[in-house]
Each structure stands twice: as structure tokens, then as C-alpha cells.
Fold these 3 entries.
Entry 1:
Amino acid sequence: MYTREQASQLRQAFWTTFGQYIAPHLSADGYRTNWSNYKTGFKHVYFRMRAEKKTAYIGIELTHPDPEIQELYCEQFLELKTLLHETLGEEWEWEMHSLDEEGRTISRIYREISPVNVFNKDDWPELISFFKPRILALDEFWSDAKYSFEALK
């Protein structure tokens, strides 16, 4: 078992390693990107990656506090579902209006794998192999799709 500080250091080491590994890749628009903290340019639309003790997760999270506006974002993503899945090369799970860890209502489109453990350095290659192609594909998708969301900005 790790102390809170050790766990934090291991997570930070993983994300630093991931960042160094993916840093040479430019965005679909040709820019240097902080892949671990991807900016969509839209408040309440996030591309999140998480690595925990038993699972890893990558997803699009819609966090707008107004459920009706959040639903408009969901509807727009549903319009682009085929393009999203084609760009990703796989289908993802769609979960509308669920609660996050802090009790807020969010919607998300995501992919998860298990068993993987961010605290086990032997799992890091698998985690990086999981995250890298998916965040690059999300960026490629978003490069074209973001314009469909301008009216919601």
C-alpha cells in the first residue's frame, strides 16, 4: 500500500512519462499540444484520461451545470457519432446524465480497460498504448467537429 504522497508521485511519474512519449506528436492542426491536459477550447467539454489502481479511462466529458445545455451538447455529439467512431476505429460507451465523483451531473463518451494498475510500472506500456492512439484520434476528430459546437459556445 502506498502513502498518499507516494501514490501522487507515481501518478505524476506516469503522466510525465506519457507526456514525454507523446510530446513529439503535433496536433491534427499542426500545433504542439499538452496531451495530458488537452484543451478543447470549450468550457464544460473535456477530454479526460485517468489511470487508477484497477482501470484506465479515456473519454469526452460534458460538464455543463445546466442539464438542458448539457443535453444540447450530447445531441450534437450524437449527430457526429458515426464520424467519432470511424475516427477512433472503435465504438465507445455513451453515458448520459450520470453523477461524477463529486456528485455533479455529467455526460460522457468513453472507453475503459482493466485490469491495469498505474502503480505497477510494468503496466505503463499497456497504459500508454491505450491512451496514445485514442487521444490522437480524439484530436483528429475534434479538429473537424469543434466547428459544429460553435453555436453552443
Note: Residues 4-152 form one domain.
Entry 2:
Amino acid sequence: MSSVEIKSIQGLILELQSEHRDLDQVVATLSHSGSVDQLLLRRMKIRKLQLKDQISRLKSKLIPDLDA
């Protein structure tokens, strides 16, 4: 993998982590408020899980393959 590809993946990971943090804050705020749209909250939680999975997949791409 070239250094350009690695930098690109690292940049994408940072963006996704930022979005995940932002969603986490919004979900926490909405959860503590009395009147919240449960469907919206559920969709946000699902999006957070999708982001987490995507981040994990990208991080695993950065791990070099070693011959046994």
C-alpha cells in the first residue's frame, strides 16, 4: 500500500471518528431530554454503529500483512 493510500485512509478514519463523536453527543443529549423522537434516536444509534464498523474495517486495512 502506498503512502498516499495510507494517508487517505487515515484522513477518512479521522473524519469518521469525528462524525461518530458528534453523533454520540447528540444521542446523549436527546436521550436525556424528555420529548425525543424514538425513531430518530434509533436511526442515529444505528448510524453510530455503522461508523464504528467502517472505522474498524479501515483500521484493519492499515495493518500490514506479514508472511508466516
Note: The chain has one domain: 3-61.
Entry 3:
Amino acid sequence: MRNCVSLALLCVLAAAPVLAEDAAPPYDAAVRSLSAEERAAMTGVSWHEGCPVPLDDLRVVELPHHTPDGGSARGLLVVHHDAADAMVTAFGALWQQGFVVTRMRPVHEFDGSDDKSMAADNTSAFNCRPKSGGKSWSEHAYGRAVDVNPMRNPFVKGERVTPPQGKAWLDRDSAKAGVLVSGSDAVQAFRAVGFRWGGHWRTAKDYQHFSRSGL
């Protein structure tokens, strides 16, 4: 009888599904309108009167991302409503690839400062500001651009590196977590949804930057 019971138990165990110990949770993204609290927090910080898009045109994309410590977190991106689905799709591909995103928070949490956001290696999208060194609106002011891991993927023009902490990441090695390189699956994920990469610019390299217009 004991042998029969043991045999039956072995059969049950063999038939049971094998679960990975560190299986990542499923990709669960959502798109929603700005809350009243978010509107208030953004006004006068990352958005103000005179911006090229009204708050009603913006959406919050909530999505999971892998973190450098091997875990995961749920991030928030503020984008134009016509870019929301593209962000869900592109970051879904990055999730499946295991691509690391250090953090993902709206820029108003950094006082609307692009410099503070980049220094924190923060992935962000909407910020009503002009182009760096220019007067015309950045694509971020329309909510149709996203900067991914800006410290790991800095802006480089000659000797200028922005953010300065990005100098440690000038060796564009695809084996480094969260680094974007030409032809990589991560870059292709954004290209597939119609966003062009600043790493392909000629006179400068904006490795963090993806935009619909290519600017």
C-alpha cells in the first residue's frame, strides 16, 4: 500500500506545472486622464498657461518596468493622448525584453527641472519647456517625446555631456543594463510605434530621446 501511495504522489507532482521562482508579474498597463491632484501639482511647474497643449489633451500611462536591483516597479508617464497607446506598446516590448528602467516619474515631481530629472536617471515624457539651448518648444512640450534612462543614455555633443553623470556611460555597451544602442531590440520597439531615436542624429547624439517627429 505504501508503494502505491508513493507512486500516486509522484504522479501528481510530475503533472503539476513548474513555476519559475522569480517569475515576473504580467505586463499590466493602463491609460487614464490626469487626476485633479495631478493637474494641480503640474500647474505652474511642468505645465503653465501658454503651453502648446492643454491639460485635457494629456494622459497618464501607468506601467510596470524592471529595475536595476532585479525587481520591478510601477511607473507613470505623462504623454499626449495620441501617443499613449504607442507608449503602452513600446514599453510592453521593453518589459518582455527584460530592459531595465531606473525610475519613471512625472517631471513635476522634480520641480519641473529637466536637469534634476536626468540626474536621477528618471524616464519621463511631458514637460512644457523649450528645446535645450533654443527658444522653440521641445517635443516634450507636446507630450510626444520620451527620455529613457537619461543618465545611462546621455546627450552628447562634442565635449558636452548632459547630464554630467552620464560621462560614466559613454562606453555604449549593449551588455550594460538600460543602455540604448543602435539596432537594439529596445530601439526597435520605439521605431515600431513610429518614434525616432536621437541616437541617430548626426551633429549630436541624444541617446535617451525618442520622439514622433524625430526632433
Note: The two ends are 75 Å apart (CA to CA).
